[in-house]
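Subject: Protein record for review, amino acid sequence with backbone structure tokens
Why sent: The fold of this protein is of interest and is recorded here as tokens.
Notation: Tokens come from a learned vocabulary of local backbone shapes, not from coordinates.
Attached in line: The record itself begins immediately under this heading.
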Amino acid sequence: MLLRVVISLFIGASIFLGVLGQDWESAEIETKTAYKAFTKTEIHAKVGMKIGLGSVNVTLKGYTVDCVKRVDANGFFDNAITKASGFNRSFCFICSAGRINQEFRQAQYRGVPLPIQWVAEYFTLDGELIRWGRSYRTAGWFANQVLWTAVPVWLIANILSCVVLFYAGCMFMVTSVFMFVSLIIWSTIKWGTQPLSIPFEDGVLYTHYGSSFWLVVSGGIVSFLYGAII
């Protein structure tokens, strides 16, 4: 009985964390880059990016090249800053087609660091076969809907496990089908015409599947095997 509860909770947790998670894809690079516009100041920065079903989150943490002093990315550069700190900015792209463009312009007006703007700008492009924002938004929307559909099916499977175990097994297998379909949608539609790659001075920021993606994969496998065994 305890094993059944643990397995069911793991499947449910993988669904909810997949829907709400911000790490379906992630990328990170260490590079030398300008910190803000109209200045020659450069920083050694660690730029990170995490893409969820509804938004992209960009982080920046680094220090100056000359003074080896930390950068506080919440404001403009200050040579007196010595405390380690970072910047975290999330751009929503699933709410509406123009939402990320609006947030990107607002970030520019507020003086968000250039590396953050450089990454976010790639999701605002929509032309010349460069449509990462459109493909990620479409894939995220459909994957989100399909994954949410797995929730009531999972609940029905838990109810049936206390009534008719055979039908509960069938519903757990159906739950896994919805989870796998969401993964297929994300893995195919999101690429658009070409993979996302963001060049920096010391390398290229390539994305790879993150923890949220693999959690849904593992949850789907467990759900299918559990249903098949039942």
